[in-house]
Design a protein that fits this description.
Blueprint lengths: L1 H7 L1 H22 L9 H22 L4 H11 L3 H4 L4 H25 L1 H11 L14 H18 L3 H18 L7 H7 L6 H5 L6 H4 L9 H5 L29 H6 L12
Length: about 270
């Protein structure tokens, strides 16, 4: 019954999950902070949350049928490799989650490796602090491209609507969690990292240092970074002293809402991620 309600109200389920997780993680990082706040909290939070609203509206405008809706059509039409080989049930659900997760990992690597894509992904990295709202700060063009990749993946494999919706909620939640400025005891963090991406693990990816920035691409499962050789244990300067952001966008002015849309098009962009 709960499963059917979720499938009948996917947008409500997404929004409710987002709001609840955002509030819970914000309270947690306020109570147990890992790093001292950089500052400009109200400016950052307004900009980072506002761009989420813009992204949701744009995605709905551009994709009347998004990943979950396309999954319904794929199942009905019998599209995809899973349908062709009769792959259904619980294994379909689990494998779909794994495939979508590795696709997000590969997409993330691609957004760093391709100069044009890196320009848009810079908006995420140009944040001067690292907290729960950084996990939802993405340029609309990146979100549109990401949705397109996800839709193609769903159709190619014939994934079920439930698996796609659950993955989207998990991805949204883990993106916020992995960017949360929360202290996790070192021993626990080392154990968790064998299974999931932790804030300490992902924070290294937001280092100003380019070598460190090209590590720890995962959002959910940590195994992909280990398999593909992009895992890094610790930052050179330590977690509490490591500078966050990008060299060419260190002025607080770039934290304002309007600049989040303009950053990819500024002439000061180097356009590459060496």
């Amino acid at each position: 019954m709960l499963q059917q309600w979720i499938l009948d109200h996917p947008d409500l389920f997404r929004v409710a999950s987002f709001v609840i997780l955002l509030l819970l993680l914000a309270c947690t990082e306020w109570l147990f902070p890992r790093r001292k706040k950089y500052g400009y909290l109200s400016r950052r939070w307004f900009s980072n949350i506002a761009i989420v609203v813009v992204n949701v509206l744009l995605l709905r405008l551009i994709f009347p049928l998004m990943a979950v809706e396309m999954a319904f059509i794929s199942i009905e039409k019998g599209w995809g490799l899973f349908s062709y080989f009769g792959f259904s049930g619980g294994w379909n659900f689990v494998v779909s989650l794994l495939i979508l997760d590795v696709m997000i990992y590969l997409q993330h690597v691609m957004f760093h490796a391709v100069p044009t894509l890196w320009r848009f992904h810079k908006v995420h990295h140009a944040d001067l602090d690292f907290d729960v709202t950084t996990g939802v700060r993405f340029h609309p063009i990146e979100m549109i491209l990401s949705m397109g990749i996800k839709i193609v993946t769903v159709i190619a494999f014939g994934m079920t609507p439930l698996s796609v919706l659950v993955f989207e909620v998990i991805l949204n939640g883990t993106s916020m969690f992995t960017h949360t400025n929360v202290y996790i005891p070192l021993g626990m963090d080392r154990i968790f990292r064998w299974f999931i991406v932790t804030p300490d693990m992902h924070r290294i990816h937001h280092s100003v240092d380019k070598i460190e920035r090209n590590t720890n691409f995962g959002f959910n499962l940590s195994v992909w970074d280990r398999i593909f050789g992009t895992y890094r244990q610790d930052p050179e300067m330590g977690h509490t002293e490591m500078p966050i952001g990008i060299d060419e966008f260190r002025q607080p002015n770039y934290l304002k809402f309007g600049w989040l849309f303009a950053i990819p098009f500024l002439r000061k962009n180097k356009g590459t991620e060496e």
